[in-house]
Request: fold
Amino acid sequence: MRRMVFIEPQAPGFHIFSRFPLPRLGSFILATMMKERGWDAEVILEQLGGVNYESVRSADLVGISTITPTALGSYAIADRVRAMGIPVIMGGPHVTHLPDEAMEHADFVVRGEGERALMAFVDEWEGARDFSRVPNLTYRDAGRILHNPVEPFLDDLDRLPHPDFSLLKGGLQRVANMRIIPVQTSRGCPFDCSFCSVTGMFGKGYRYRSTDHIISELRKHNEPGNFVFFYDDNFTANKKRARELLNAMIREGFRFNWSTQVRVDVARDGELVHLMKKAGCHTVFIGFESVNPESLREMDKKQTVDDIARAIGVIKGAGIHIHGMFVYGFDEDTWESVEATIRFTRKVQISSLQFLILTPLPGSELYKKLVAEDRILSTNWSHYDTHHVVFRPRNFTPYELMQAQLHSHARLYTWGEMARKALRGNMIGLGLGYYARNLNNKWRKINRDYVKGLRKLPVPGEVRDGSVPILSMGETAIGEKTESAI
Reply:
C-alpha cells in the first residue's frame, strides 16, 4: 500500500489561541480523499508533539500545508523530508501566491484549491507522470519551473468527504475537557477587503454545502464535551441559507455549543441572531477592524462605526459572546484613532478583544500596494502574524505602531477592567482578560530585543536615499528573541 503523510507546521511563538489547537481542514480533507483512494494516509500537526520523522520516513509522498507565518517552518520541514529522498508537494495560501519561492524547497506546488488537483496529480503519479495535465500544479521540467493553468473553483462542495480526524494519531486533543471540532460549510467571500487573502484562495463568490451534507457531518460530533467551530469566513452571508441550517440544527437537538465568524451586518436580522443562540451559538468572532471611518473606507470594509455599535448591542442582547478584533496600521490611522478605539472598546464591554497589527499577506491588495510603494520592511514570514510590524506605516514609526498594540492591550486588560467584568458577572470575560494580560506581559519580556530593534529603524524623514533596512526571509528577527504576540 502506498503512503502519504500530510504535515501542518506549527505557527511560531504563542498567541491568545495557543491553548486551543485549531487545525486547518485542508490536510484532513485531502488525507481522507487519499484514504478513500486506497492509500495509507496520516496527518501530523506539529503543534501536537512535533513531527515524527520516523513515521514520515515510510511515506511515498509528503504534503505540507502553508500559511504565511508558517512558511519558514514549512520550508525547513520540506528540506529535511527531501533530504530523506521523499518527494514533497506543498499547498496553501502562501505558496499559492509565491510558488517560485516554494519551489526552492519543494518538488511540486498546488496553487489554490487542492482537492481535484491532488487527485489529478496522483493519477499521473500512479501512471504516466505527465504532470502537464495536472491543473493548478507548479513543477519542474528540464530544469524549468512551469505553472499549469488554474481550473475554476469547485462548485459542488458536497463532493468533498467529511474530514476523518482519526487520521491524526490520538485524534483531536481535548483542552479544558473540551474537544474543538472544525467544520466548514462554505467557501469564498465577495467583500474582498484590501488586507485579506481569502479571495485569492477561494474566490469572490460564496459556495455552500447542502444542509443535509452538513447535518450528516455534525451528527458524528454530537456528544458531550465537543465544541464545533464553523470555519466559514462569514457564516450568515446568505441569511436564507443560514436560517435553513440553524433550523435543521435545532430540530436535531445537538448537544454541542459552537462558534463562528460573522460580519456586523448579521445584526440587521435580529431574528436570525436569536435563532443562532437557540441553535447553540456560544461566541461569534467579528473583525470590527476600526472605529476610524476613514480607515474603514480605506480598507473597503463596507461597514460603519454605527454598524459596529448596533451589532454589539443586538448580539449581546441575544446572549451570545463576542470576540472582537481591531487592526492598527492603515494609512488613515493615527494615535488619536488608537485612543478612540480604546475608549470605544471600554464602553461596549464585549467578552474578549484583540488588537492586531496590519499585516500585508501575499495575495492581498495591501501587499501589492506596499510592495509597489517600497514600504515592506521585512520578508521574514514568521513575523507575518498580525503581531509584528513588517512594513513602514504612514502616520507611525514602526516602533510606534508596535507600541500602539501593546498599549491597547495593557489599557484593556488592567485589574480595574477585570474587576468591572466581575461585577457585571462576565466570568468568561474575566478569565480571558486574566489570561490575555499574562500573555501580553510575557510577550513584552520575550520580544524586548525585537522592540528595541524597531526603535532603531529610521523614520521616513530620515531616509535620504529612499532605502529601508530590509530583513530577508532567512533572518530570524530584528532582535535576538522573537515570538508571536497575543
